[in-house]
Design goal:
This protein is mostly helical. Helix content is about 75%, strand content about 0%. It contains 20 helices and two strands. A two-stranded antiparallel sheet has the order 1-2. A hairpin with a 6-residue loop joins strand 1 and strand 2. The chain is globular. The relative contact order is 0.18.
Length: about 500
């Protein structure tokens, strides 16, 4: 009885509402082509300043999870993935929607997404403490190499021009050094601007790179563009037999997605395709893939959502975000004065346990909200860009000002947004920039501490067992990237010869 009386039911109810809000925004932004996860998290991040650390993290994680599913709504109903993570879902989702029922295809998606999310959450809960105990054995040399490993993974595995990708990473690392040097107390790259003394505002950067650039992209196109959907038969319901038919591909996708999520720099987009390929290989009817096979929906959707739980493992246990979206969530921790990493389990165990419980609740709520709201989200897809642009701008401006009460950050975000828009047109990676920006302080501080301890000797990075393992992993990523680059170059040469 005393235990029941001691529970803060008001706080629990508010956390519940934060999860619902995160899911709603994530699903909505994920469903709208061109917006997606980064815009959703960007718009919600300013709320972190006024919420408790628990509520802010649950809000952003719910948004993350909701966007993973939301991308499949437009992928299935329009044949246009709302997010890059849903690209594999289009292959069978859109044909099934056209040939049979969009509602049935969406039902397969929300069911598989929920199972994948729960599986990823269980992986997170079961592996986090053993991995955190292992992380306590790591020192500054290993944390420096872990940060570099994340950047190497992004540079070598990421798509697009490798030189431009590397340039984005270098610029992100430089941007992360702006402010007061914590070792010497001197100003760096601030230009004597007071607002930059504590570093570049994370929310200003995120809004500029994702929200403002998307607004400029919409303005440069057709503002009156309106998608068309078949609004008939959108009821999301599965029979027990239909549910049984996707258990196998859903299980495969969940396992693949959880594993891929743990790897830095790979992400949900790749896990969806890995899950799809794996399910196709073990399917009894692989030839039907691409024609509307429910297994081709279940596998990538379960993989996408399972990736979230797997991706949280290195963030919580090592303090290393493996993607731009997780880098922003890591920023929400830092805003509240909490550094993700192994110490979080001993210093704030109630926060970790709350995240675990909230993660599973989010997955369950996602199913019911998906069943309830998917039809409405599908209809919202016909909203013209002319209505979306002012809404994004208003929320972005409010978010920047609320986070810092500074007009400087508003102008800074606007100018950076214009620059980032042209960089995006030139195929520079804004995702790599954000990840490098967040990892920059970890890399710098760990490097300098390690050199202080070793009296300036760089051999400290080559004489420790875990350091050597991390260096070998980096070499594997680099070799993999070189092989991938050579294959793509050979294919281009063959195409030029045949042309």
């Amino acid at each position: 009885m005393d235990l029941l009386m001691s529970i803060d039911y008001g706080g629990l109810a508010f956390s519940f509402l934060c999860i619902i809000l995160g899911l709603f925004v994530g699903m909505l932004m994920g469903a709208l082509p061109g917006l997606g996860l980064m815009i959703a998290i960007t718009l919600l991040l300013p709320l972190s300043y006024s919420l408790s650390v628990m509520d802010s993290i649950l809000l952003l994680l719910a948004c993350y999870q909701g966007a993973e599913y939301g991308g499949s709504i437009s992928a299935i109903t329009l044949g246009i993935p709302g997010t890059a993570m849903a690209s594999a879902t289009v292959v069978d989702g859109y044909p099934l929607a056209k040939n049979k029922s969009p509602g049935k295809a969406l039902a397969y998606s929300i069911t598989a997404s929920t199972i994948g999310a729960i599986f990823g959450g269980l992986v997170l809960i079961l592996l986090s403490k053993p991995l955190s105990k292992f992380a306590l054995q790591l020192g500054d040399p290993e944390y420096f190499l872990l940060g570099i490993l994340g950047l190497v993974a992004i540079a070598s595995i990421g798509s697009g021009d490798k030189i431009k990708n590397l340039t984005s990473i270098v610029l992100g690392l430089i941007a992360g050094t702006v402010g007061v040097d914590i070792f010497t107390g001197s100003q760096r790259f601030t230009g004597n601007i007071h607002e930059l003394s504590e570093g570049i505002n994370l929310i200003a950067i995120v809004v500029a790179l994702f929200a403002f650039t998307e607004v400029f992209y919409m303005i440069s196109g057709n503002l009156n563009h309106r998608n068309k959907i078949d609004a008939s038969n959108l009821k999301t319901k599965l029979t027990f037999q239909e549910f049984k038919s996707i258990l196998k591909p859903t299980g495969i996708g969940s396992i693949v997605g959880s594993f891929v999520g743990i790897l830095p720099g790979v992400g949900s987009s790749a896990s969806g395709w890995f899950g799809y390929i794996a399910a196709k290989k073990v399917s009894k009817d692989p030839k039907s893939f691409g024609t509307g096979n429910p297994e081709g929906i279940a596998a990538p959707e379960s993989a996408n959502n399972a990736t979230v739980g797997g991706a949280l493992l290195p963030l919580l246990t090592l303090g290393i975000p493996g993607s731009a979206s997780l880098a922003i969530i890591a920023g929400a921790f830092i805003i509240h004065g909490i550094q993700p990493g192994p110490q979080i389990f001993s210093k704030t165990p109630e926060l970790v346990n709350g995240i675990f419980v909230g993660f599973i609740i989010t997955a369950i709520l996602m199913y019911f909200m998906g069943r309830l709201l998917t039809t409405g989200f599908a209809r919202i897809l016909v909203t013209p860009n002319a209505f979306l642009v002012p809404g994004i701008v208003i929320f972005s401006v409010i978010g920047i000002y609320a986070s810092s009460s500074s007009h400087f950050n508003l102008w800074f975000a606007l100018v950076l947004g214009i620059i980032a828009f042209y960089c995006r047109l030139l195929n520079y990676s804004i995702y790599s920039f954000v990840l490098a920006f967040v990892l920059s302080p970890i890399i710098e501080v760990s490097l300098r501490r390690a050199l202080v301890i070793s009296d300036g000797s760089y051999m400290v990075f080559f004489t420790r067992t875990y350091s050597i393992i991390l260096i070998l992993l980096m070499l594997i990523f680099v070799i993999f990237g070189i092989i991938k680059w050579m294959k793509s170059r050979n294919m281009k040469e063959e195409e030029n010869i045949s042309a």
